[in-house]
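User: Fold both of these, please.

Assistant: Here is the first one.
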Amino acid sequence: MTPVTVRKVENKTDLNTFITLPWKIYKDNPYWTPPLLSMQRHKLDRDKNPTWKHLEGDYFVAWRGDQPVGTIAAFINHRHNEYHNERIGFFGFFEVYDDQEAAHALLKTAADYVKAKGYTALRGPASFSTNDECGLLIQGFEDEPVVAYPYNPAYYQSLIESMPGFVKVMDTNAYYLTLSDAGDSEKIQKMLRINQKNNERRGIVVHAPNRRDLKAEFVTLKDIYNSAWDKNWGFVPLTNDELDALVKDMSMYIDPRVTLFATVNGEPAGFLLAVPDLFQAVHLAHPRPGKPEIFSLVQVLWYWKVRRKISRIRIPFMGVKEKFRGIGVEAAMFTELFHRATAIAPKMGWDYGDGGWVLETNEPMHRLVEANRGYVYKRFRFYQLEMGE
């Protein structure tokens, strides 16, 4: 068999191979949701993606003869290292056929790149931080991916874990939250009554954002988010440029009815952001190389707004400032979300919500989700390779 070689992406042709190879790898997978090519190109563009302002790295393609068989990115996130006082590099955009030789060659290339830069460990997958798609799916393969989650074949886990030195460093969970019958749940109704009394006693007010001034609302969100997640494993604060990109992306499909802010005695204390899962519409549109993207976008709108094929909402961000934890702010937002979502679910066609991701070590959140009849249905894993000085 022809041996595997790994080459750095050097030109537009190489980059096109890097971007489009997943369509070949996943061609027989009914669950994979392909990205819009324009969004993928923007994400990988060092000049356009604001995250690249604090990254350095390269993209690589594995070849068996003249056939591409896998891809990987190796990079240093300087903002992460400064924030956590670490000296680690990352790998991401790891895509490969069920080919152990190719997988090992790609992971070794990433490790060699990071070590040559003077860093002592390699962590991933991440594309490009915990604010983006990250982690390797290890549970929940027979389900379409949810917006902002990665998806990969089950064999990726064995490919990585068979690489000497790669060990689990952290798992994250995604929760399934039933909406269709939650409104009839006596437990939920009881929680609403308890929370109402607690809110009055503590001065907690939960409200929707001002749709006319989303930029200001997202500035508040960023401040709470950066404060609330400050001590979380792997967290890197959003920069102003990243916030602007987030506002641009999210403002197109944010639903104020299921986006909530909380104040305590008038002071911003927490937020919960829920969005319709556009991946369901993208999955049906199935964007791909050679198909004009305008056709895909029109189909996404059709399945979202007209046919209403979106049956779930996604809760990608939630946070409460540390000084307001433990007094019921989380529960107040969560139960208010259930109250609002179940009221509009029949009209919108929503059956359930996805909450995540949540660190496996976050016991308070686990208890809160379980109290609302949620359960883990997807799990993601981060790996790390220690290389030493």
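And the second sequence with its predicted structure:
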Amino acid sequence: MDAMISGKPMPIQSNRDATSSGWTKIAAGIFCWFFLISCSEQVDPLLQKANEEWVQGRNHSAIEIFNEVLKNHPSGTQAEEALFRLGEIHHFSLNNSTRALIYFQEVLQMNRMGPFSYPTQKYIAEIAEFGLKDYDQAIIEYQNLINHYKNENEGSDHQYRIASIYYKKQNYEQALVELNILLENYPDSSWAEESKFKIIEVLYTLSRCPEAREQYRHFTLEYSDSRFKEDMDFVVASCLEEEGHLQEAYNRFKSLEGRYIYPAILKMKLVGIEQRMKKNP
């Protein structure tokens, strides 16, 4: 859930780690790849050795062997894998995302539709957003994922990231557009509920409170037990406060006591409204 400062919500954040593949999944992926590739072509023993070295945490030894694989196989699937693993080592193990980006870009240059293309493009997008904080480039890279890889299960993830980035850039109107695109193109997405909640937040941020309240009304009918209920109640109360409906706003804020995740902010709201009502009884 997002905190709010001075009544305005903080930037949209995914509650899913953008680099959630994790070491266990990476290691599992390495050995699954061995199984698959062994059915179609002979695996260079050096490639297997390099992967084993990385799994064991011997990063520099793995790098040396992967580079030897590239000398022996300057093109083809094994070269693509060597470049891809070099990118992963530098990104995850050596915390050198700039160097990792070079390897990942080489993978795409070698074969944009190869077996490592999609995860490579995901890494590039994530590095642009979270590592380099180059938000304009990150939007381009996430859009590339949507345009070039028709993965319905993850397309909504990429669309959500685009909306989130526009919010980070404080381009709230475009964030609203992107959230609506998500709902239109991926109506059954696991992001649908959260996106509808974020739309309410964005409308409030844009001081479009009547629209925010209308969206809130539809939301509560559709998601009666939403995990965002307290956050939405806070937004609606904030709208009422901004519009001068102080008693109603106060009552809504008061009802959140013991339930809202940020009690200090809630207390600040209540005290502020109490002071306003004393000045203007």
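The longest strand covers residues 4-5.
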